[in-house]
Write a structure and sequence with these properties.
Layout: E1 3-5, H1 11-21, E2 26-28, H2 36-43, E3 48-51, H3 59-64, E4 70-73, H4 83-88, E5 92-95, H5 101-117, H6 123-127, E6 146-150, H7 154-165, E7 169-173, H8 182-187, E8 190-191, H9 194-200, E9 203-206, H10 220-224, E10 230-234, H11 243-252, E11 255-260, E12 280-282, H12 291-309
Parallel strand pairs: 1-2, 1-3, 3-4, 4-5, 6-7, 6-9, 7-8, 9-10, 10-11, 11-12
Length: 310
């Protein structure tokens, strides 16, 4: 059995695979994702292929996986994997469902607190001898604010539980969940339609996949319908939010802040879109990647790949 791992994975999980299948049979190179020709050659005779979000398992790369029986995804989003094409070829696609939910939920709550308070991005000013105390003394507390969750799967539900723990009211939109679904009672979240949620929430957090229905969902019109001073957090996928419209709303003062962890093109190319945007946090797709989450995700996928290969 040969296993190719093209992006970073916890060492203990890699060693678990090596103990089961032999060190020579487990090729772990986190830089393979950036070596397309080498990656094409590597997967040609593999039985399992383990990736994160940057490796695009489709087209030429998928066609090169002539022997692969398993695609392990070190995360939950599957937009970088052509799942129907994999299944048509008899490949089992295994995401690490739930393993990084806590990391994402904590990121959302931390970002909401930072952005509403508007006082944690002043290090350079204070270190440089400035004292912006008056300007930063009108930040808002988290308790009592309304968090709106768009998408109410496992990550959204865990985020709701954490938010309620710090005193937030939680509203959520998810057309896949009926009024009778136990998640509403279990989390204390209030079911709300999309437009009502967008216009009433103090913090809006996105937890939906990138599909035709969500592409450019937060365009200029949707952003303009948010409450003045509201905060937008995107840990879902790039392409759901119109970056130009978001930047414009931050610069105009309509939005009070934003945290963006995901981008249509990753790594994000150098550009001027977000230059000079106030109260903006940009992170490199790491909301779900904490030390602990990486251990859980990696361990889960290693176990599942071992089971799938027998």
């Amino acid at each position: 059995m040969k296993i190719i791992i093209s992006e970073f994975m916890d060492d203990d999980a890699v060693n678990l695979l090596r103990a089961r299948f032999g060190a020579a049979q487990v090729v772990y190179d986190a830089s393979l994702v950036d070596k397309p020709a080498e990656l094409l050659r590597a997967v040609a005779d593999c039985d399992a292929f383990i990736v994160r979000n940057r490796t695009q398992v489709r087209g030429e790369l998928l066609a090169a996986c002539t022997k692969a029986r398993v695609i392990g995804r070190l995360g939950v989003g599957l937009d970088n994997i052509d799942v129907p094409a994999c299944e048509a070829r008899g490949m089992k696609v295994i995401p690490a469902t739930g393993a990084n939910a806590l990391a994402v939920a904590e990121y959302v709550i931390a970002a909401a607190m930072m952005l509403r308070r508007s006082s944690y991005l002043s290090t350079a000013e204070v270190a440089g001898g400035k004292w912006p105390r008056n300007r930063l003394s009108s930040g808002r507390e988290t308790a009592g604010a309304t968090l709106g969750l768009i998408g109410f799967g496992s990550i959204g539900q865990l985020t709701a539980t954490l938010a309620r723990g710090v005193g937030m009211t939680v509203v959520a939109y998810d057309p896949a969940l009926s009024d009778a679904h136990p998640a509403w009672m279990d989390t204390g979240a209030i079911r709300m339609e999309l437009d009502e949620l967008i216009s009433s929430a103090d913090v809006v957090s996105l937890h939906v996949p990138l599909v035709d229905a969500t592409r450019n969902l937060f365009n200029a019109q949707k952003i303009a319908s948010m409450k003045k001073g509201a905060v937008l957090i995107n840990t879902a996928r790039g392409g759901i939010v119109d970056d130009l419209a978001l930047a414009g709303a931050l610069k105009s003062g309509h939005l009070g802040g934003a945290a963006v962890d995901v981008f249509a093109t990753e790594p994000l190319p150098a550009n001027e879109v977000f230059a000079s945007c106030p109260n903006l946090i940009l992170t490199p797709h790491i909301a779900g990647v904490s030390f602990e989450a990486n251990v859980r995700v990696s361990s889960m996928i290693a176990d599942q790949v071992i089971r799938a290969l027998g």
